[in-house]
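Before a colleague's protein record goes any further, I have to sign it off. Thanks in advance; the entry in question is below:
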Amino acid sequence: MKPVALVGIAGGTCSGKSLVSRRLIEQVGEDRVLKINQDSYYRDLRRMSPRQRARVNFDHPDAFANDELLRDLDRLLTGEPIDEPIYNYVEHIRETKSERREPKPVIILEGILVLEDRALRERMNYKVYVDEDADIRLARRIRRDEVERGRSAQSILNQYEESVRPMHLQFVETSKRYADIIIPRGGENLAAIEMLANHIRALIGQSATAGA
C-alpha cells in the first residue's frame, strides 16, 4: 500500500503533539494512519559512557539520525515496510530489537524538530505546529520524566534550563514559520483537529477515486 499523505506534527516538549496525533488517528481511522516518532531515531550512544551520555544535548538537531529517518520515510512512501528503532530513554541507547511497521494511507511523523529539517518538510503534505505555553509544557515535562523516566525534579529543571529551553528558542519555536497549520492548546483544540482530519479524509477519498 502506497501512502497518500505525510503529516508532520512538531512543537515544543510536552506541547500536546502525541494527543493531537492520537485524536487525528481516532478521527481518520486507526487502519488508515501509521505514526512514526522522530524520537525513535535518536542516535545510539552505547559507545559512550553513562556520564558522557548524560552530557549530550538531546534537544539539538544533531541528536537525531535524520538520514536514517529519511531513508525509512522514503521506503514507507513507496509502499515498503520498515523496522522502526526502539529507543531506551533511560540508558540513551537503542534496543537491539525493532518494530516492524507497515505503510498505511496516512503517515504521521511526530517530533519536536520534524519541521526544522528541510528534507523532512519537503516530503510532507501537511506541516503542523502544536503550540502551548511554556509554563504548561514545563509542568507536564516534570510530571512525565519523574513518572516515566525515574528522574528527579532538580535534574529535569537543570536540563530544561541548560538545553531544552535554549534549543526550543533556537530551533523548535523558529520552525513554526514553516507550518501550514498552527494548533494552539494542543489536543484540547478539537475544532482544529477536526478540520485537519477532514482535509486528510478528503485526500484519501480523492486518491481512492483516482485509483478506481
